[in-house]
Amino acid sequence: TKKSTAAEDLIWFYANRYLGEENVKKLTDEKNRPFLKYGGIAVLGVYLIFGHLAQLISNLVGFLYPAYCSIKALETSVKADDTKWLTYWVVFASFSLLDTFSGFLISWIPFYWLAKVLFLVWCFSSSEYNGSVIIYHKVILPFFKKHEKKIDSAMGRVDKVVTSASKEAEKITENIRTE
After folding, report:
1. Which of 44, 85, 131, 152 could make a disulfide contact with 123, Cβ separation 3.0–4.6 Å?
2. Taking a C-beta distance cutoff of 8 angstroms, is the pair 59, 53 a contact?
3. How confident is the model at residue 1 (pLDDT cuts 50, 70, 90)?
4. Alpha carbon distances (Å) from 128 to 69, 83, 109, 118
């Protein structure tokens, strides 16, 4: 038998927990698997087009599985999986910034949430040249290299503000605790 992926393990855990092991066995019988797999994908796709919680679902797809895999990667001694997931998070953060500031435009794009889910799945796919690797090396890294000095300078100012705010918060906390 083939080894299951982290996503499959997570799905089986929750399916067994909420549906019951016997029901899961019936549903996942060999003859029902194609219907379950493609039916689930079709329902999710339709819901991402017409559903009211499409934004939430697309954000969960882009966050839950990658977060789970990132935790698993951090618990291994292998550096390659850490690099894979760190690259994904850099791309995810960049995309999230664009996504946040283009909200008005997004509402006009048909099938946006479905396209976003497909994009995020491509970014965290197990392929050696998944979306996050390509976007990082072709877009983000060249942009960063070009503007590195300006970014470093801005981050230095941010660091000073954060340090100052942190010290002020410590003083306030100490005053509250001693009163």
Report:
1. 131
2. no
3. low
4. 16, 12, 30, 17
